[in-house]
Write a structure and sequence with these properties.
- The complex is a heterotrimer of chains A (about 280), B (about 375) and C (about 70).
- With about 280 residues, chain A is of the alpha/beta class.
- Chain A contains ten helices and ten strands.
- Chain A has an eight-stranded mixed sheet, with helices on both faces. A two-stranded antiparallel sheet of chain A has the order 5-6.
- In chain A, helix 3 (about 95-105) crosses helix 4.
- Chain A is globular.
- Chain A starts with about 25 loop residues before the first helix and ends in a 5-residue tail after the last helix.
- Chain B has about 375 residues and is of the alpha/beta class.
- Chain B folds into two domains: about 5-185, Thiamin diphosphate (ThDP)-binding fold, Pyr/PP domains (Rossmann fold, 3-Layer(aba) Sandwich); about 265-380, Rossmann fold (3-Layer(aba) Sandwich).
- Chain B contains 13 helices and 16 strands.
- In chain B, strands 2, 3, 4, 5, 6, 7, 8 and 14 form an eight-stranded mixed sheet that branches. In chain B, strands 11-13-12-15-16 form a five-stranded mixed sheet, sandwiched between helices.
- The N and C termini of chain B lie far apart (about 50 Å).
- Chain C has one domain (about 5-65): 2-Layer Sandwich (Alpha-Beta Plaits).
- Chain C has a two-stranded antiparallel ribbon.
- In chain C, strand 2 (about 25-30) and strand 3 form a beta hairpin.
- Chain C is globular, with a radius of gyration of 11 Å.
- The termini of chain C are close together.
- Classes of the chains: A alpha/beta (about 280), B alpha/beta (about 375), C alpha+beta (about 70).
- At the A-B interface, strand 2, helix 2, helix 4 and helix 10 of A face strand 2, helix 3, helix 4 and strand 10 of B.
- Strand 2 (about 65-70) of chain A pairs parallel with strand 10 of chain B.
């Protein structure tokens, strides 16, 4: 077979990964390394992968870079420290819906606000998978979880809207079904100087799909195929067609604003940096 | 350098810069805020970075990230903020990321008396985070020593790759003294440890060096290091085995225990003829010293023992002391924390009594003197 | 045959994603729970299986003209 050039970005001796059969995280992880591969100047030596805790965050251990598996919810502060300590490094954050929007929610919005030059990819599987299927802030209304046995009554976050409102300068969404699109969304996010946020919808057949009788992994992906609407089409869709299941994917927001490290560089000059 | 009037917190900031700290993440909290304010002013001048984070947890996270990227780092806070930092202090222990945490203690628990002095975080410094871990905590009693011990904290953090708590109290933090700071060439700096072999030669980030401390490569240097809070083997990758778990936790303790005699610093005065001793630390030691002088003026043979290193605890020194004197008075600005350690180390060799205060005011020398006289009377 | 398959079966978890999204129904999951190329002659080398395999277990290369 022809060598798959992205395979060099994996720590071969760590594979196969620990994710369940049919888990979408593997698809999203590959999309990230393919996006990195497309980026001129991004190497395994100058790109840092930072993750939190949870299923998504185990990705860092499989990726052959300097990698940091932090504490639950804390990936963005660690990543901010790395980027500000050495702005030459490309810093990618891998997080999950619980990690990013519950325990790490405050760090998330403040990372957006500061416009730290990070690429944050949220693997949204709508559930706490690692701990066995508890409701997350992105579990849809009415869906079941071990801690919402009668269906969730907690209104979910739209992490993309949250990121945009908080000041992120690149916001996009894609899914594990739309693989090439997902790679493109991540790649464009990496191109954007500033806080880039990409929500990658991934299926969790074990802790979410099964409990909610959505079926096999492929059925969950087919649901993504059938319900995702490209942003352009979504904008033209009459409101009565935007049913509960339908959701937009694509680039939602993009802006050019000074990054935090460049702003701080100005501060250093104002202070009369000598070293 | 000529003498100048300086506050204890200011001396911490100056000491940090002198020690090579180039990254500070913080969050405002009384009575430590001046450290953050000073760092905000000083760091950009030397090419360093100050960042005010959204909370205390993030302040801890951001410095650990910066430390992995090769910077010497420090954060400062007080009781409630230090509580929030504990999660990532545990992370720093487990991942062996050098970091200094300054705690300018105030009255607690909770918001307590935010502007008033206390020494109530002695046990928090040691056991605040979860799980088995080792830690170093040192405590200055003067403005100049705040400067010196900040440098020492940074050096210890780098050398042992362990979180170091600089255990200040509001007394020393807000104390103003005329101090003369050492010249740059008089300051000893422990450099960031570096890998001794290349990746190709089989470098492993968590392989211990002779002193049991690993030489973990900084991010961006091409070593492709994996850092995780999961128990990991020498490669840095998680391993779910009893042996690796045991070895890892043991090494993290032994790297400090092995160097304990060197780390533990205790100042002893008037001990030659002492029949009694007053043990104190930090700001309280200043009053205790005055009380000891007053007691000696009254003809009481009292010595002065100041713990500079709080953790690891000075077990051997206190055990020897307990065999030498007839009674020990522990003076501390809390309900009684350090006294338990002194009793444990003394192991019944002499009477150990507590002189405590927790009413938001500092000790008067007379109060400690009265306790000394009570101790003497009780033994005789 | 238009294609050549490479299977890394130690990585395959038998999730069935490749089977479901194959437009020509070339693939099956065997009794051991691993992917098997049941009808290689039907493969059009579209790569949908490889694209969505979450475990990087299946690779499909278009056979070059010369190899025919």
């Amino acid at each position: 077979m022809e060598t798959r050039s992205y395979e060099k970005y994996f720590r071969q001796n760590r594979l196969p990964h620990l994710w369940c059969p049919g888990c979408g995280n593997g698809i999203a992880m590959k999309a990230i390394v393919q996006a990195i591969e497309h980026k001129e100047g991004w190497t395994q030596d100058n790109t840092i992968i930072v993750s939190g805790i949870g299923c998504s965050s185990r990705a860092s251990g499989y990726m052959d870079f300097d990698t940091l598996h932090t504490a639950h919810g804390r990936a963005i502060p660690f990543a901010t420290g790395i980027k500000m300590a050495n702005p030459e490094l490309n810093v990618v954050v891998i997080t999950g819906d619980g990690d990013c929007t519950a325990i790490g929610g405050n760090h998330f919005i403040h990372g957006c606000r500061r416009n730290v030059d990070l690429t944050v990819i949220l693997f949204n599987n709508n559930i706490y998978g690692m701990t066995g299927g508890q409701a997350s802030p992105m579990t849809p209304l009415g869906k079941k979880a071990t801690t919402a046995p009668y269906g969730s009554i907690d209104r979910p976050f739209d992490a993309c809207k949250l990121a945009e409102a908080a000041g992120a300068t690149y916001v996009a969404r894609s899914t594990a079904f739309h693989v090439q699109h997902l790679v493109k969304m991540i790649e464009d996010g990496m191109d954007c100087k500033g806080f880039s946020f990409i929500e990658a919808m991934v299926q969790c057949p074990t802790a979410y799909g099964r409990r909610n009788k959505i079926g096999e992994p492929a059925k969950m992906m087919a649901w993504m195929r059938d319900n995702a609407v490209m942003k352009n089409a979504w904008d033209k869709l009459p409101d009565d067609k935007k049913t509960a299941e339908k959701f937009p994917i694509g680039l939602f927001y993009k802006a050019e604003t000074e990054t935090y490290d460049s702003a701080y560089h100005r501060i250093q000059e104002m202070a009369g940096v000598t070293a | 350098m000529s003498a100048r009037l300086m506050q204890g917190n200011e001396a911490v900031a100056e000491g940090a810069i002198a020690a090579g700290v180039r990254f500070f993440g913080g969050y405002p909290i009384t009575p430590s805020t001046e450290i953050a304010e000073m760092m905000a002013k000083l760091l950009p001048k030397v090419g360093g970075t100050f960042i005010q984070m959204e909370d205390e947890i993030a302040s801890m996270g951001v410095i650990l990230g910066a430390s992995l990227a090769g910077k010497k780092v420090l954060t400062a806070s007080s009781g409630p903020g230090i509580s929030l930092k504990q999660e990532l202090i545990g992370y720093a222990s487990a991942t062996e990321i050098p970091a200094v945490i300054v705690n300018v203690q105030r009255v607690g628990p909770s918001t307590g008396q935010p502007t008033a002095p206390s020494q109530g975080d002695v046990m928090q410094a040691r056991w605040g985070t979860h799980g088995d871990h080792s830690i170093i905590a040192i405590s200055p009693w003067s403005v100049r020593e705040a400067f010196d011990l900040t440098i020492k904290s940074v050096n210890y953090a780098e050398r042992f790759r362990v979180p170091v708590i600089l255990l200040m109290d509001e007394i020393v933090g807000h104390l103003r003294e005329n101090v003369e700071l050492p010249a740059e060439n008089e300051i000893e700096i422990y450099p960031r440890r570096a890998p001794k072999i290349s990746r190709a030669e089989g470098y492993e980030p968590y392989a211990p060096d002779e002193d049991l401390v690993p030489n973990i490569a900084n991010f961006g240097e091409g070593y492709h290091v994996h850092v995780t809070g999961l128990i990991h083997d020498e490669t840095g990758f998680p391993v779910g085995s009893p042996k690796v778990t045991e070895d890892s936790i043991r090494r993290m303790h032994e790297k400090i225990e092995r160097a304990a005699d060197e780390i533990i610093e205790v100042q002893q005065e008037f001990m030659d003829d002492a029949e009694f001793a007053v043990v104190a630390f930090g700001g309280t030691a200043r009053t205790a010293y005055e009380a000891v002088l007053n007691a000696r003026a009254k003809g009481l043979k009292v010595g002065f023992v100041r713990l500079i290193t709080i953790w690891p605890f000075a077990d051997k020194i206190i055990a020897q002391l307990a065999k030498k004197v007839r009674g020990i008075l522990v003076a501390e600005l809390n309900y009684g924390q350090l006294v338990g350690e002194v009793q444990r180390a003394a192991n019944g060799a002499c009477l150990v009594k507590l002189c405590r205060k927790y009413d938001m005011t500092i000790f008067e020398p007379e109060e400690i003197l009265a306790s000394i006289e009570n101790l003497v009377a009780e033994v005789k | 045959m238009k294609s050549e398959f490479t299977l890394k079966l130690e990585r395959c978890k038998g999730c069935g994603i490749c089977v479901a999204f194959c437009p020509k129904k070339v693939l099956e999951i065997d009794t051991l729970g691993k992917v098997v190329v049941a009808r290689p002659e039907d493969c059009i080398a579209c790569g949908q299986c490889e694209l969505r395999c979450p475990d990087y277990a299946i690779f499909v290369d278009k056979l070059k003209e010369a190899a025919k």
